[in-house]
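Structure first, sequence second, as always.
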């Protein structure tokens, strides 16, 4: 591989001259600059960015530690990080912990989890990244921080017990409030709710938003119309059977997967979603656009979480703005489709 000395020898100039040309420092004649650049291209010269950045004391690279890149929320968040990096002339390195695939729970398997995160943080530090984004599969408190390493750190889709570390999250409580409010405005009063598992902060936030929307519209909360699921399709099927026996006219479902189970049950029973029963899910998964009828749902600001995480981290690295701290919540968007648009009031 060609280096600056090879270029200098062929151009019959000093290595310092080649360095000035390749680094855009200036002070070199246009003829010499053109000659050096043409020889560099001829020799297929590639700069050693690692060595250059090490010399400057800044790598212009971010480290991303992802709990699992196969979980639905992760790719769009990484895409947002990548877009911001392009805008700010940064690169990123990605480490995948594979927690979901390996069935490792950060709490239940704390020792293994701490080992994996410590190794990932050490790897990022050895690669001289300027800052680290920790990207979670689901919202939880992340205890693995390189607080003693004096490196900027941001949490995405999760939070930190330390207010000094910015945490980018989405407001699913507000989103649940708005989704339930949409059903209320359509004239529904008997609105069922299919929740996720009780150990999830998302479940508690979404249930609270649902209850707040009922309260503010003078609709008494009926606990019999709340059925706990487990985020999986079969639990949606089972919940639909219970709720339809109680004559609900609409259902707010805590995710799109369980909503598919509701559609399965209604199809089997001859209940037409969108006309006989209004239904809204959560997450805006691709399946929500291809099912029949198409599913109204809540879109998470995943790209925006990624972009904001990178922006805040880079601002912190460069010291250009007052550093953000604490939990930062981004709004979701209600996506209305056929499953709520066609309801006929009886």
């Amino acid at each position: 591989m060609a280096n600056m000395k090879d270029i200098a020898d062929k151009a019959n100039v000093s290595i310092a001259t080649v360095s000035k040309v390749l680094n855009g420092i200036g002070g070199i004649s246009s003829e010499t600059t053109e000659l050096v650049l043409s020889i560099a291209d001829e020799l297929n010269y590639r700069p050693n960015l690692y060595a250059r950045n090490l010399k400057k004391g800044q790598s212009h690279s971010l480290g991303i530690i992802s709990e699992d890149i196969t979980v639905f929320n992760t790719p769009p968040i990484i895409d947002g990080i990548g877009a911001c990096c392009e805008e700010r002339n940064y690169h990123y390195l990605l480490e995948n912990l594979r927690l979901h695939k390996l069935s490792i729970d950060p709490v239940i398997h704390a020792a293994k989890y701490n080992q994996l995160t410590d190794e990932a943080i050490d790897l990022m530090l050895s690669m001289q990244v300027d800052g680290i984004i920790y990207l979670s599969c689901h919202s939880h408190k992340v205890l693995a921080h390189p607080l003693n390493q004096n490196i900027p750190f941001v949490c995405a889709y999760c939070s930190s017990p330390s207010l000094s570390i910015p945490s980018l999250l989405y407001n699913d409580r507000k989103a649940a409030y708005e989704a339930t409010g949409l059903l209320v405005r359509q004239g529904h009063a008997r609105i069922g709710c299919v929740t996720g598992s009780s150990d999830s902060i998302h479940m508690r936030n979404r249930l609270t938003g649902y209850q707040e929307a009922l309260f503010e519209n003078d609709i008494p909360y009926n606990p019999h119309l709340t059925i706990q699921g487990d985020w999986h399709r079969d639990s949606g099927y089972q919940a639909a059977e219970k709720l339809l026996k109680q004559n609900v006219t609409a259902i707010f479902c805590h995710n799109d997967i369980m909503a598919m189970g509701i559609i399965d049950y209604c199809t089997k029973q001859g209940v037409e979603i969108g006309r006989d029963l209004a239904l809204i899910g959560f997450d805006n998964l691709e399946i929500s656009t291809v099912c029949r009828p198409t599913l109204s749902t809540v879109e998470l600001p995943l790209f925006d979480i990624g972009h904001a995480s990178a922006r805040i981290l880079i601002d912190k690295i460069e010291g250009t703005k007052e550093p953000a701290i604490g939990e930062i919540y981004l709004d979701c968007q209600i996506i209305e489709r056929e499953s709520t648009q066609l309801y006929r009031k009886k």
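Margin note: Residues 110-126 form the longest helix (17 residues).
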